[in-house]
Predict the structure.
Amino acid sequence: MTTPPTSEIDPMILVNRISKLDVAERGMTSSDHESSNQTNENTVEELSECTQAVMKMTSEDREKVPLLRSLANISWRRFRRLNKLEDLDRVIICGDQLVESSPNDDPEKPQRLNTLSIAYQNRFERLGETTDIESSIVYRTQALDLTPGLSAHRIAMMTGLGNAYLSLYEHQGSLEDLDKALAILHQVVLDTPENDPNLSTRLNNLGLSYQSRFEYFGRVEDLESALKYINRSVQLAPENHPSKPKWLNNLGISLHSRFELLGDVQDLEQSLACKEEALMLTDDDDPDKPARLSNLSISYQSQFEQQGRIESIDKAIKHAEIAVSLIENNKYLLPIVLTNLGSSYRHRFERLGEASDLDRAIKHDERALEMTGDHLVGNHERLNNLGNAYLCRFELLGHTEDIQNAIAFQEKAVLATPDGHPNKPRFLSSLGKSCLRQFQLEGEHDYASRAVGYHRQALEILGAYNHPDIPSELYHLALVHMSLFDRFGRISDIDKAIDLQKQAIERVPKERFTLTGWLWNLGNSYMHRYEKMTKSADLDAAIENYKEAAKSSAGSPAVRLQATLSWARVARFLNDSSLEAYRIALDMIPQIAWLGSSINHRYAELTKDLGKIASEAAAAAIQESDYALALEWLEEGRSIVWNQLLRLRTSFDSIYSVDARIAIELERVGQELGRSVSNARQSAHTPQSSVYLENDVQQQHELAAKWDSLLDEARCLPGLQNFLKPKSYSELVLAAKASTIIVINLYKERCDALVLTPQSSEPTHIPLPAFSEEKALEIHRRIVASHSNYGVNKARRPKFKPEQTDSSFEVALGELWDYVVKVVLENLGYLDVKDEAELPHIIWCTTGQLAFLPLHAAGRYGNGPARAFDYVVSSYTPTIIALLDSKKPLKQFCGILLVGQEAASGSEALPGTVIELDKVQNHRGDLNLRRLEGENATDLFDPLKSSFQLYDGSLYLSDISGQSLEHADFAFLSACETATGHHDLPDEAVHLAAGMLILGFSHVIATMWSIKDEDAPIIADHIYADIIPHGVPDSEKSARALHRAVVLHPGMRVSPFEDIEPWVDIELAKTGRALLEYMYEIYKDESGQQAGNTTLTSSKRINRNVRGSTGHVYVGGRFPYGGSILIWWRYSAGSLEISLQYRLRVSQLNASSLGADW
């Protein structure tokens, strides 16, 4: 039967329908919900129709008022049960009609007015609309006017009116509203009997009013009154009182305020305890939950500011993020929570330096400010926070507009804050800091004067009640005077700066997180005065402050590191021992490039001075003739990120036998941290809520902290005190059993070689006085310019390139020979020409810019050439540890995977890939082969986004580093630049070849520059001929196989600096082969044929250039080739997952399942 239009519904039918709705609602309990969405929709539709029908009744209809009352009651009960805004709106619609329909002498009118007032106040709390709270006050006032005497009902209505005025004050900031709230609520408490069960509620309301007045004027007596009344309300409340969570939360707020005012850490701890308990007692659907989460977040932020613990600021962010996610369009509460969240992200940025945290801080601060008007209370806090965030971004990026915006917002914050407000000194201090940075940037004295004035004004206010922020203001005022000294050189300024800093340090608690930075800057001030006055007492004072800061257990690791380096450098300046300081500095590196930070952030930190500390420390150790210590430090302070990843995959067998629980946990945490590397890149491109993204960040923080804790536990076990600690020299020297290892340390003006040979137990020191960092940069620039002229570093070149002439590369190789390689080989007695089979095998391990220089190709290429490869077979290793970490030989060969991309999307066609794969298959015998396809791409801005370009997507370095193949053995990467590192990370080996090492391969052949399409098939042909002589590969032979292929094989020669082809062999085998790169050129037949016998002319040309070559001269064919990746590994039964744009699973790769066609 069709329901008639609402205008035609008979009143008796309406009565019947509403009565049924009333009965149904009364049957519901507080925990009941409709059995289905459809049921709920039907009920809402029924209520809506009935409401519309009743609204169309005239005032003469006798049933209108009873029906309105029934609808309002049904809707109110539904709202209390379901917390749906549509029900509350219906209460207000019906309540407005009821009040309008009731004469003043109606005995029910006061109650109807009061109920309507409550409904408006509830909607204000949900939406934050000012008109709702104003309507609530109007209706409650009318209700009181119609209720004479001093009844319990009247006192309850007065309570509601006082709370409404308090809410209006908090929303609009009118002191008149606050005064009214205090007067009414104070009278309510006086009129309430001691045994009244409502007394605790009314005491809490009064306490909140005093808290608000304290926040406006900053008077201690108001705060003490707030604490007195709120604390008593909590004590009077029974355990199961529904409002107890609210009162505990309010008590936590007041305790936190007293902590901020007086600095008693016990108040902060009690505040956290109250707020935690309040949140624990709060139901998930409680509308007050977001506010309580935000309040708890504020206390955790304060704990972080005191102690610097990352878990504290993580908790602050987590609670605020959840609060934001729970708020539904509340224009009052949301800006407050966003402000807190933005502040927490900024604090974490200041601690960890993750730029994404600063981006989020600014985003939340800007959104909070956009949502509010200048008239709203709390805007000064938002203005100041946004100004602080802009100041941080200026420090990060150096953009002038950011410092200008910081000052503009902070000026507004100060102007918007009344005198006497407790936060005004903090806002003045923020403005002073920004003015100081503007003075340092532009040198305008006015900004320095303003900075001094703002800090002095803040000190004057704080000094009135001995505020705990006084030391901070003294310190920042000292920084202004320090900058004035730097600019104008006045002794009075440096004297003032030192005096103020000493006062600040004397007054601050020793456990304060910021103390370390203050001590470091005081040391800097003494150093500046020493440089001006040359008084030895200042130098001694500087060292003492640097030492104290360096050895502090609190403080930011980054600040401690700077203090430690300052101490070390002053010690070296005085010719004192600096080794203790450098030992502490090296211990700081893992704390700054922390496992809990993103890999990109760790690399960003390493591009700063952090990446050079190992070389600086080693130079100091060499200066003090402690060569073994120098080697230990070089190993400890380089390839930081790769070593972190490798440690996550270490074997825990030695722990299992002592404590299986620790071993199992270490294995689990290590695997989860390893997975987070690849997950980070994927999540960055996957739309997710900020809560989920933050959960990922905090999970990595927690896992890193757990990993460190478990390692500490493991090192307490018998015999495991050095587990996963840096290797000692006695362990490192074992890598030189089969080969000579030459470690070259390059730091500024000093260059030294430290040599490990199979015959010696102590390192040999070979000074290289003619070489320096400046000379290395000069040679590198020449090589880069030479390659640029030839297009060597451009995309792969499938067509043969005509020869060109350029002497810059020849000069560069000659200088490398004269200043470095010749000196080393001569000291080792390696300059005797020998047969190829007798050439000694050396492994170069370089630092700094030497990582980009081809030492193996160094030499003089004119008449009577002297070249490194004439005397030695060269390899490279990023670290000595890499040679020790190679796996045991496998007993059984299990398979080969070939990857060759003839034409990838967006890349030039490279038909030589097909020929190269065919060349390898000619040597495979009965081996099983698989093929995939791909090229490579290097991303120098984000090293972990370097990738192999496969047919159906990209295989990123982060994907590779997140995998581990237990039986991987050998990789041949003949794509271009697969061993090219990041120019800002020379000691970190950030390239695809290193990714293969992390994946688990023991041997890798790769390329440093671009290659020609026709070359790789010939190289592959000769290499595989050597290492697969009988159908079963022996990758141990790869170094000498490559040496023969590109240097000694007839038809190839080292090019005199044209069209260089840099093959690189990264062998991480137990024999110590690590990296081999050769320049070579294959002369095509003069007639232009792609293959065939040599002509007389071409033979003469080869013989002219390949001096001393023997055997039949063969000119390699001109085979088209380009950009394939040839990967070969030993892999037994198991499952490998390769992460591509479209995921590709290769399952059960083993000898029995591999086939020639796939």
Q: What stands out?
A: The longest strand covers residues 740-747. The first helix runs from residue 11 to 26. The domain at 253-362 is CATH 1.25.40 (Serine Threonine Protein Phosphatase 5, Tetratricopeptide repeat). Confidence is low (pLDDT under 50) at residues 791-805, 901-917, 923-934, 1049-1158.
